[in-house]
Amino acid sequence: MAFVFALILVALALFATEAVPVDVTAIAVMVALMLAEPVTVTLVDAGLLADPLYVLHRPGDDVSPLTQGLSGFASTATITVLAMFILSDGVQRTGIVQILGSKLAALTGDSETRQLGATVGLVGPISGFINNTAAVAILLPMVTDIAHNGKISPSKLLLPLSYASMFGGMLTLIGTSTNILASQLSAELLDHPFGMFEFTQLGVVVTVVGTVYLMTVGRWLVPGRIEAREDLTDEFEMGEYLTEVVVREDSPIVGQTVREALSETEFDVDVIQLVRGDRVFLEPLDPKSIQPGDVFAVRTDRDTLVDLLDAEGLDLIPEVDVDDAELESASEQQNLVELVVAPGSSLVGETLVSSNFRQRYDATVLALRRGRELFRQRMDRVSLKVGDTLLVQATADSIERLNVNRDFIVAQEVQRPDFRRSKIPVAVGIVAAVVGVAALTPIHIVVSALAGAVAMVLTGCLRPQELYDAVQWDVIFLLAGVIPLGIALQETGGADLLADLFVLAAPGLPGIVALGLMYVVTAVLTNVISNNASVVLMIPVAVEAAQQLNANAFAFVLAVTFAASTAFMTPVGYQTNLLVYGPGGYRFTDYLKVGAPLQAVFAVVTTLGIAFFWGLAPA
Questions:
Q1: Nearest to 123 by CA among 605, 528, 580, 612
Q2: Where is each RCK C-terminal domain found (predicted)?
């Protein structure tokens, strides 16, 4: 037991700090459990250790420790979540969400009330049936454009977008991966898995209450951090970092390539575009030979510019504003966009240099925003994180490629020619069939979901090679890694001990207060670590505590499940919060200011709702 608790503390610290990716932490936990078990079992068998520190399975059990340690990969929850990612992607690729969004956008105009209502009203129901992170990723560009077109700060809409996707995910079993994992744990501990619409009535109540909060109190608490823009360079405050220089006749760099002369120098400078006569060139610029009279638009700071002019034989072109119009003069199409680093991106932890960003994507990064922090110098030294927003210039073709790249979310609407709109009825029908079969027949959700995933390919909604891109593998490995930790916590008596402490901390409290306390403890935990990890750790404790309090254990399981999906108070508590962190220009404290009251309201509403719908008396 001591080993398991020590491992949990280390895991919590790593989950909270993200010193390594959370999925890597989960796999390391799984490996630690499997390595520790054989030693302690051998000692127990030999009679040398009367009170083992950690025994995943007692001697004589039918299931081997290795099998139990790897059980997360065979878990119905893990496989169901994997299948749901595929189903969600099949729906996304039809473009139906974008169609719904564009129709709503046409109705909102410049009214903040209508914009906010459309945002919350669209993402909530959608999140009940497709992955909520995917829903936010799809709708983020639409919501950003709605705000700017209506002259409203996108910050006023993006945080509500994230929050509404979270409580919308509580409408059905398949709304979030957390629900599916909680269902499996409930089945193992109470022989009571969740039905498809097991808690929909409470989900509707929570969604209505959350919507009212966001439309009233939340509307005034959400700050307008980003001004409604007409110019991206103004939004990123690039005025002092963009300029144009011309190559003198006697410049030492004449005849050299851009790479030799400017890209690979010690100067902190990026060449954005080249003007030669009447022609304007964008990336790739590195191979081009420099000629006298060439005009370069560059990103650099003033001190570096002075040194660059002297060293490279360049002259500053005075009284030139390098703004959006100037930077987009090379093309009739949009070539200046914001890119958001997506969850699971291969660039997370990399820098612009180590990822070879410029050459890899034929795009130039002009600035980087992380919350309210702006980087416009030495960006090549900054390790990228999920939610970082990059101001990028590239050709229209490069932007189209970036728009379909799963490493990024383009924060403005870019027309995608590859939507399979003819497949909309098919994809929607497949998801409806999966939901209907799981809800109305004895067939397990994992079977119907896998069948639906196969149907997506057989009907052409997805191509076979797109299956692997559809899955968020970091979530799958996170689930596979933390599930054995929950088993270990339960079987070593750790859950019993934590339940004892919980009961001792609340002596003589009414059952409904204890239920609310369980909700609050889980909600605080899930704002710091992964929501899936919170469910794995807290559901065994909730079941034991309910049994000691002679209360309805299923009610306590539901309290943990709902609390784990309400990570409103920090940007790191949920992936959707990270997705809007950069584009909204938020501060860490914004989440606390807006999310804490909402968390408190939900604690009361959810607790009362569970008591009303399911009761607190033991079944």
A1: 580
A2: 230-314, 322-408
C-alpha torsion angle, residues 318, 286, 403, 227 (rounded to 10): -20
- Number of Cβ atoms within 10 Å of the Cβ of 318: 7
Whole-number Å distance between alpha carbons of 88 and 427: 9
Q: How far apart are CA 54 and CA 36, in angstroms?
A: 7
In the chain, the amino acid numbered 8 is I
Higher pLDDT, 546 or 531: 546
For residues 357 and 88, what is the distance between their CA atoms, to the nearest angstrom? 29
Q: Give, as one character, the DSSP assignment of residue 146.
A: H
The b-or-e profile of 329-364 (16+ CB within 10 A means b, else e) is ebbeebbbbbbbbbbbbebbeeebeebebbeebbbb
Q: How far apart are CA 154 and CA 514, in angstroms?
A: 40
**Stretch 214-242: mean pLDDT:** 81
Q: How many CB atoms lie within 10 A of CB 236?
A: 23
Residue type, 609: G
- Give the pLDDT band (50/70/90) at residue 1: low
Closest listed residue to residue 531, CA positions, set 579, 568, 581, 580: 568
- CB within 8 A of 444, min separation 6: which ones? 76, 438
Q: Give me the residue label for tokens 């906010």.
A: 116
* Closest residue by Cα to residue 561 from 253, 247, 193, 211: 193
The answer to whether the Cα torsion of 546, 552, 557, 561 is positive or negative is negative
pLDDT in tens, 462-486: 888 888 888 878 778 877 877 777 7
Distance between CA 405 and CA 416 in Å, rounded? 12
Q: Which two tokens stand for residue 315?
A: 């002259």
Mean predicted confidence (pLDDT) in 208-231:
87
CA torsion 572→576→577→581, rounded to 10°? 110
Region of 191 (left: φ > 0; alpha: ψ -120 to 50; beta: rest) is left
Q: Give, to the nearest 10 degrees, the angle between helix 588-614 and helix 200-215.
A: 140
Single-letter residue type at 100: L
CB 431 within 8 A of CB 129: yes
Q: In what order do the strands lie in the sheet with 373-375?
A: 373-375, 363-370, 389-394, 336-341, 408-410
* Dist. CA 433–CA 57, nearest whole Å: 39
How far apart CA 278 and CA 506 sit, in angstroms, is: 77
For residue 84, what are its two tokens? 């749901």
Q: State the pTM of this model.
A: 0.77
**Residue 588 corresponds to which tokens in the numbers above?**
């860490």
Contact 447, 75 (CB under 8 A): no
CB atoms within 10 A of CB 35: 10
Q: List b or e across 448-468, with b for residues whose CB sees 16 or more CB atoms inside 10 angstroms.
A: bbbbbbebbeeeebbeeeebe
